[in-house]
Design goal:
2 strands; 2 domains; two-stranded antiparallel sheet; MetI-like fold; 15 helices; mainly alpha
């Protein structure tokens, strides 16, 4: 009987592993396909049936760096590197400000009891869930009067609606997991509140800062609505600049694929850099006394 049960468990394991592998291949195929398109010539991209074995070329990446895209389908000027730098400036600027403002704000929400605390926390969260198109018209009028349209300051400011709620609501759980008794012990040892915050609390919630900062960066990097309506030619990020690859004469698949590969590098690099903090953050609070 035990042998039959063991065989059934093995069969179930094999089936589950097979389903997992199939799902992984299906989910990963679009990523691999786009990556392969970035290293194909235009003639190879348009070939049917698709070519899975081909000689790689860097022509699409050279076009992006030179600013002249299109290859054999007709050329046009696309300043992708400027769009890339704009995305870095806006996204990093928004995340840095959100961390500087959000960490103390989250600590106050998590540690102090005051009237309307939960209402304030929910209001901050509602900024993230509210449709961007619902608030874009009053923001546009406001920015127009202040002269903030097509400026880094304006976009970094409005991106706080995306990044700040993410920082506050993820970090709140991390701070609440830190024992109050630990803080009180530090106060008894002569540490003030400010010193305890910087010397004790911040090191303990560093995994949460890394995780929330990374997610906030990804959301800011991928934003399109705020950038296309409140930005312009001077501050257009990669999400807006990518539209230049779609023209009346052709769709520049190779250039778009190369741009996607390059645009994915910052988020991937940050994820690899913050990997140990993310692992600690996922396991934080998993084991409690």
């Amino acid at each position: 009987m035990a042998t039959v049960t063991t065989r059934k468990e093995k069969i179930i394991d094999y089936v589950l592993n097979g389903v997992t592998i199939i799902y992984f291949v299906i989910a990963l195929f679009p990523v691999v396909w786009v990556f392969s398109l970035a290293f194909k010539e235009t003639s190879q991209i348009l070939t049917w049936p698709p070519q899975f074995l081909f000689k790689p070329t860097l022509e699409n990446f050279q076009s992006l760096f030179s600013g002249l895209t299109g290859g054999n389908t007709g050329s046009s000027t696309v300043d992708f590197l400027r769009n890339f730098m704009n995305s870095l400036i806006i996204s990093f600027g928004a995340v840095i400000i959100s961390v500087l403002v959000g960490v103390p704000a989250t600590y106050a929400i998590a540690r102090y009891n005051f009237k309307g605390k939960e209402d304030l926390a929910f209001t901050i969260l509602s900024f993230r869930f509210a449709p961007e198109l619902m608030v874009i018209i009053p923001i546009y009028i406001f920015f127009q009067k202040l002269g903030l349209l097509d400026t880094y300051t304006g976009l970094i400011w409005v991106y706080q609606l995306i990044t700040l709620p993410m920082i506050v609501w993820i970090l709140r759980g991390y701070i609440e997991d830190v024992s109050r008794e630990l803080e009180e012990a530090c106060w008894l040892d002569g540490f003030g509140r400010i010193r305890t915050f910087f010397r004790v609390i911040l090191p303990l919630i560093r995994p949460g800062i890394a995780a929330s900062g990374l997610l906030a960066f990804i959301y800011a990097w991928n934003n399109f609505v705020f950038a296309v309506l409140l930005g312009g030619s001077r501050t257009a990020p990669v999400t807006v600049g990518a539209m230049q690859f779609i023209s009346a004469d052709a769709l520049r698949y190779g250039d778009m694929a190369a741009a996607i590969v390059l645009a994915a590098i910052p988020a991937l690099a940050l994820a690899l850099y913050a990997q140990k903090h993310l692992i600690r953050g996922l396991s934080l609070g998993a084991v409690k006394e």
